[in-house]
Amino acid sequence: MFPQKSPPPPATPPGYGQPPLQRYASDISSPRITSWSSGLCDCCRDIPTCCLTFWCPCIIFGQIAEIVDKGNTSCGTHGAIYTIINLLTGCGCLYSCGNRTKMRRQYGLPEEPTNDCCVHFCCESCALCQEYRELQHRGFDMSIGWQGNMDRMVPNNGVQIPPMAHGGMNR
């Protein structure tokens, strides 16, 4: 006669309430998106930094770039390159927008309110102030550079621990 039909599968998914597995390598390696600690136009939160950024952006940019570059290039070198590009072309924003992109990727920050080059081209001072505030919010003392921050974080056993990057480790 006719074979008997098997009962339908259970309604519970195979993971029994556990979150689904990540299927793609990009799901694992991409940092969790977090929001900026302050807005692009929140420059008035720190008037001295705002003034310094407006009158001498090479100093603020150099400090930001040294931290983002993890000390591979000094504050002075980044600031000098920024100044030379600004003096020769008037477009230091082309150099600084790449640094913003690198910072966003390290800390899982969204590209807002628009892409990085537009942000730096339209409002260079505001963008630099926002990046500076973000690094301060993440625990960096901008005045002592990367190495100074690393020395400050050395525990008693002599092992250096870098600042915590929200969203996981990126390689």
TrEMBL record:
Superkingdom as given in the UniProt entry: Eukaryota
InterPro entries: PLAC_motif_containing
Protein name: PLAC8 motif-containing protein
Organism of derivation: Helianthus annuus
